[in-house]
Amino acid sequence: MLAGVFAEVLGVERVGVHDNFFDLGGDSIVSIQLVARARRAGLPLTSKDVFTRQTVAALAEAAVLDGAAEERGPDLLPAAGPVPETPVMRWFLDSHRTAPERFTMSVLLDPPGGIDAAALPRAVAALLDRHAMLRLRVADVDGDRRLWTADREDVDRVLTVADAGSASPADLDALVAAHAERARAEVDLREGPPVRVVLLDGGAPSRSRLLVVAHHLVVDGVSWRVLLEDLAAALRQASEGSGVDLG
Question: What positions does the domain Carrier occupy (predicted)?
Answer without folding.
Answer: 1-67
